[in-house]
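Posting this for the archive.
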Amino acid sequence: ATESVDKGTGSGIIFKKTGSKAYIVTNNHVISGANAIEVSLHSGDRIKATVIGADALSDLAVLEVDSSKIDSVAEFGTSASLKAGEPAIAIGNPLGLKFSRTVTQGIISSVDRSIPIDVNNDGRDDYELNVLQTDAAINPGNSGGALVNISGQVIGINSLKISQTGIEGLGFAIPIDDAVKVINDLITYKQVQRPYMGVESVDLQSIPKAYWSDTLNLPGSVKNGVVVKDVATGSPADKIGLKRYDVIVELDGQSIENSLELRKFLYKKKIGDTIQVSYYRDGKLKTDKMTLQKREE
């Protein structure tokens, strides 16, 4: 499928058909800011689409369309067992509808790359996305399209946004196992269900060192961590008594050097999980157990 977005185009994958509705997955950056979206199907039919959920951190979005023109859905494989060197085929619409349903072939170059994501374009990384690296050509218009194995099963979702490196033969795709979790949340809840601590924080390294001892009362051995700026009332952090100027240094015994590492740790957990939080307050190291919960809107 092809989405026409503000006179631009992207690609999409028909994920599921249920009764009178069908769901198409694409990249969030493909549909972000669009006032209206039209999907061009393999048959040549064009149908209107509605965004039912989008997630900037994973760069995924789900569209809902009338299913009457949808005659088949994609077959999804798994990305868990992929190995470097395996064949990979990218399907999409490079440079728009004129070159729709273009197929390029390559290999899986790596299965464990991490790409920084700056959601709000403030120059600071908000998240690191785990991706597959491929040398299959991924060009403008390919974003949101399928990366498939030799059996025709979808193993990844191509993303030009994280492929714009200016280096030939270096493309990236979101692993399908990661994507399916996000897609199902977007269909069911309209947003991704991520666990929530309830702290607003700042990196210790971003604070002038004069404040480390004067305001935060930190031991000289502490060089990294996450400083609590605010705690949401009724949140998991509030329930265990976290306060402003506490400095989180470990979660479940894992060193946390900055807010990005905290977010990466947190989003690997599930709502309802209990974690161990180690933090400094008034020069003393404290440890408490916190049960993660859903963010209340």
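The mean pLDDT is 91. The radius of gyration is 22 Å.
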